[in-house]
Write a structure and sequence with these properties.
- The complex is a heterodimer of chains A (about 120) and B (about 110).
- Chain A has about 120 residues and is mainly β.
- Chain A contains no helices and twelve strands.
- In chain A, strands 2, 5, 6, 10, 11 and 12 form a six-stranded mixed β-sheet that branches. In chain A, strands 3-9-8-7 form a four-stranded antiparallel β-sheet, with no helix packed on it. A two-stranded antiparallel sheet of chain A has the order 1-4.
- In chain A, strand 5 and strand 6 form a beta hairpin.
- Chain B has about 110 residues and is an all-beta fold.
- Helices cover about 0% and strands about 55% of the residues of chain B.
- In chain B, the strands form two sheets. In chain B, strands 2, 4, 5, 6, 9, 10 and 11 form a seven-stranded mixed β-sheet that branches.
- Classes of the chains: A mainly beta (about 120), B mainly beta (about 110).
- Chains A and B meet through strand 5 and strand 6 of A and strand 5, strand 9 and strand 10 of B.
């Protein structure tokens, strides 16, 4: 079975600073990888995904992530954060062959952007 | 309406009540999901319906009963719940016969069991 670990439960950062949110996964087979964001009182919104091809993936709101197969990581980065980026971020993995597109989520990282 | 909608957005119910949560997707997808999101716990997948058939039931207590009458609608029937069932219940949908793989989420129903 696959699992996802988000190493930081909270990440405080000042506005306009860069940020990296870490995600590691374990799986014995190939996977697809996703980052979702959840703003207060809302559902999850897809930020970006890695299915195949280039290991650097660009998403919405200026976020990007890099797939590193040897380190089984998929860290999320943004070069300059805004107050509006304050939210909960979830990394998720899906086995590349699974009926139902089922996802396994990490525990989430709360990004707190301070002025 | 666009995307995935859920009603009601908030629900307070007693332990002896029976209520239902409703989810509707307007994306033409063929799979739908129920998740439970509790404080300080990872998202828990409860049920999956793919092509209108249940493919996953992650050992969810029988006081939760899903229903998927067609590919656009999903219900979660609730009865004799416990206080620990208080959580945000999220619905999602995806297209299992395409090449996209991601799920689209509704805003959730905040359930409080008293």
């Amino acid at each position: 079975a696959q699992s996802v670990t988000q190493l930081d439960s909270q990440v405080p950062v000042f506005e306009e600073a860069p940020v990296e949110l870490r995600c590691n996964y374990s799986s014995s087979v190939s996977v697809y990888l996703f980052w979702y964001v959840q703003y207060p009182n809302q559902g999850l919104q897809l930020l970006l995904k890695y299915l195949s091809g280039s290991t650097l993936v660009k998403g919405i709101n200026g976020f990007e992530a890099e797939f590193n197969k040897s380190q089984t990581s998929f860290h999320l980065r943004k070069p300059s954060v805004h107050i509006s980026d304050t939210a909960e971020y979830f990394c998720a993995v899906s086995l590349s062959y699974n009926a139902g597109n089922m996802l396994t989520f990490g525990g989430g990282t709360r990004l707190m952007v301070k002025p | 309406e666009t995307g995935v909608t859920q009603t009601p957005r908030h629900l307070v119910m007693g332990m002896t009540n029976k209520k239902s949560l409703k989810c509707e997707q307007h994306l033409g997808h063929n799979a739908m999901y129920w998740y439970k999101q509790s404080a300080k716990k990872p998202l828990e997948l409860m049920f999956v319906y793919s092509l209108e058939e249940r493919v996953e039931n992650n050992s969810v207590p029988s006081r939760f009963s899903p229903e998927c009458p067609n590919s656009s609608h999903l219900f979660l029937h609730l009865h004799t719940l416990q206080p620990e069932d208080s959580a945000l219940y999220l619905c999602a949908s995806s297209q299992v016969t395409g090449a996209t793989y991601e799920q689209y989420f509704g805003p959730g129903t905040r359930l409080t069991v008293t």
